[in-house]
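Hi there,

I know you've been waiting on this one. I reran it after we fixed the sequence typo, so this is the corrected version. Both the input and the resulting structure follow.
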Amino acid sequence: MNKEYGGDTVIRRKRIVTLATVVVVSFLLGSAFSCITLAKDGSGNPFDKIWEAIFALEDRVDSIGSCDNAGFVSSPAYDSGWVSVGGGEIVFTHDLGTTDVFVYLTGKDSDDTLGIHQYEYGGVAWAYWHNLDETNITVTADSPWDYIRVMIWEIQQPPT
């Protein structure tokens, strides 16, 4: 037999084809095994989880986009409006049923020296909020806080 087209060359080609087949089959089996192990809780195809996450994200984006607000911040869950202080403490009833909130306190003065402000906010001398519970919040304010406004947002827990 001719060695060029004969036994040795054919055997080499068969070995290369066999080796290539083993490599391809190993790759496919390894890929399939990896996909199966990615589905950790045994709930099926991991690509289904990816699509579920994409659809959930699209729903969240749609819900944000459907807000009637001009900005990205929603309206507060509680807004006291402007309330005359006259010095001392005022208890506001918010009835939110939670203390997981963000409180925004702002003031304004009668003579428009400071306008709407937070001058000396948080100090014991002029204005601060305290005694927050599921129903009420107390604000203590003195001059130049002639009027105060309390706005409260509920802090939403991120989705799991």
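Quick highlight: The mean pLDDT is 76.

Best,
R. S.
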